[in-house]
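Ticket #4471: structure output looks truncated?

Reporter: J.K.
Steps to reproduce: submitted the chain below (277 residues) through the standard prediction queue, then opened the result file.
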Amino acid sequence: MITARRTVFFISDGTAITAETLGQSLLTQFNHILFEQITLPFIDTAAKAERAVNQINMEARQTGLPPIIFSTLINADIRSIIMKSQSKFFDLFEVFIDRLEQVLNVESSHTIGRYHSFVSNGIYDVRIDAVNYALGNDDGISTKNYDKADIIVVGVSRTGKTPTCLYLGMQFGIYAANYPLTEEDLFGRYDELPNVLIPFRKKLYGLTIKPERLHRIRSERRSQSRYASLHQCQLEIAAAETLFLSEHIPYINITTVSVEEIAATVLHECGLQRRVL
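Returned output as attached by the reporter:
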C-alpha cells in the first residue's frame, strides 16, 4: 500500500546510469513510497546546473517536499551549484571516493566518464557478439547454433525470455538462446521435451509466471483472444511447470522479479562464468 510520494532526481555529468542503478537499488527498500523519478544526465556546465536547480526548486514548490537527489557529479563546482537547490542531496561518489583515496593512499583522477575508458575493446566485442547471438537465436527463430549456447531459456510465450537473454549477453557476455514452448510442445508430447531440445537438456533453464499476470501481459498484446484468456494461460503454465519438474529443468517464477534478478539467478544457479565485468 502506497503511503507517500516523493520526487527523486538522478543527476550526473555523464550518462547517469550509475546514479540510477545505485539510487534505485536503495529506493527498493522503501516499498510503501511511490517515487517519481527524473533523470538529468550530462549536467557538465554551470548553465546546465542552474537550469537543473530551477527544475528541482520548482518541484519542491509544487510538492511541498524537498526532492531527493542521487548524484554522481565529479566536477566540484557543478556539484556545489546543485547542492544549493531545495533538496536532500546524496553524493554517491563522495561516500566511496574519499575512503578509497585513504585506503589506496593516492588521489583519484576525478575524470568524467572514466568507466567507459576502463572497458576494453575486447570486452566491448564480447558484449556485441553475445547480444547478436541472443538476437539470432531468439524465440526459436534458429536452433542450429544451440551447440554454441551457454544457456537456453525456455518458457511459454511472454514470460520474459527475450529480455533475459539480451541482459545476459549485454551484462555478462553470456551466449543465451531462448525457445518458446508452444501448445504443440506442451500438449502434443506430454511431459516430454521437444526433439530439438533433447541434445541440450543440461543447458536448459525455465521461466514461469503466475497465470493471472500472464493473462494481463497477453491481453495488452491480443485482447479478447484465446491466446490471452486466463484459462489458456493456466493450462500452458501448468503444463510448462510439469515439464520442468519431470525433466529436472531448473526454473524461476518471474512474476515479481526484475530482469536483472532473473539474469543473476540464472548465472548463479547454472554456474555460468561471466565473460565481462
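Triage note (M.O.): checked the attachment and the full C-alpha cell line is present. Residues 4-116 form a domain with the Rossmann fold fold (CATH 3.40.50).
Status: closed, working as intended.
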